[in-house]
Amino acid sequence: QVQLVESGGGLVQPGGSLRLSCAASGFIFSKWTMGWYRQAPGKQREFVAAVTSGGSPVYEDFVKGRFTISRDNAKNTVYLQMNSLKPEDTAAYYCNGAQHWGQGTQVTVSS
């Protein structure tokens, strides 16, 4: 069965960095676009970034220049490098692929 397992979240100060990972299994990873979404308390889940099967990234405007999405098809893993983090980036971050969701990893940006 499809499994997506996120890791790498945590508490970081404003301006800091985190790298999220999403390990995938149960489907042909290399053939699917993989995405990251986030959901803050009381808000709807929103798109953050995606990377196509060919490796082309797409970003939501509010993370352009700060976040970088990448994938390693040999490891069936997609990453989200987050730099210059802001308090408004605080949210649960979810991996999406093959029409499935991971369980999420919490990112909290606070001093």
Briefly note the structural class of the backbone: mainly beta
- Note the run of SSEs as H and E: EEEEEEEEEEE
Distance between the termini: 40 Å
Globular, elongated, flat, extended or rod-shaped: what is the shape? globular
The fraction of residues in strands falls at: over 45%
In terms of per-residue confidence, which ranges show pLDDT below 50 for 5 or more consecutive residues? Answer: none
Please give the number of β-strands. 11
**Biggest sheet character:** 7 strands, mixed
Q: Count the DSSP helices.
A: 0
Average residue pLDDT? 97
Helix content: under 10%
Using only C-alpha atoms, the radius of gyration works out to: 13 Å
Can you give me a brief rundown of this structure?
This protein is mainly beta and 111 residues long. The protein has no helices and eleven strands.
